[in-house]
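2.7 Reproducibility. Because tokenized structures are sensitive to small changes in the input, we list the exact sequence used for Demethylrebeccamycin-D-glucose O-methyltransferase, including any N-terminal residues retained from the expression construct. No trimming or masking was applied before prediction.
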Amino acid sequence: MANTLSHADLMDSTYRYQRLIYDVTRRYYLLGRDRLVTDLTPPHGGRVLEIGCGTGRNLARIADTYPGCALFGLDISQEMLRSAKAKLGARAELVRADACDFDGTALFGASGFDRVVLSYSLSMIPDWDRALRMAAAQLAPAGELHVLDFGDQSRLPRWFRHLLRAWLGRFHVAPRVDLHDQMQAIAQAHGMQLRFKQLYRDYAQYGVMVRVV
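Resulting structure tokens (single pass, no recycling of outputs):
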């Protein structure tokens, strides 16, 4: 519990003021988020959960794109949730929770989600493999887990990669270069299907796990 609390405090400290300019500044390097929203295609009236919802930017886009869906979000940072609640109002149910240890049914009264989203959040979670497994466990039959995050930038200039890593480190962000392997292992263990692609010359990576009916 002490580690969880310290990480929550770290995130609150990091984003207490950053949250005020987060959406404006991150639009330039959190690439692919609108593509994820387009690819999400939840069923009409479906339940969509974003883990690490931050300021609520993605959930607001999902609400506009797929009206009628029930939207849920969780984040470990109370500061980020302040911005999310102001942005979303009654359009989404938001709670403070740890991505590595939560019960979606207990938190939201929803047994299984049609879509679960992790967008540039695993790179900020120390025990990110556990968070990934927890996210997969929330899926309803035929549900999909959409994961978007930084790649290894291997096809980009070395100087750019070094500058980006240094900048991300200031915000306790570390690209998960073995994301594909971890998603594949979870998919194989639970009989799921996996689609995975590198985006923008390996700047980002995007994986979708589908729970087979």
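The longest strand covers residues 139-150.
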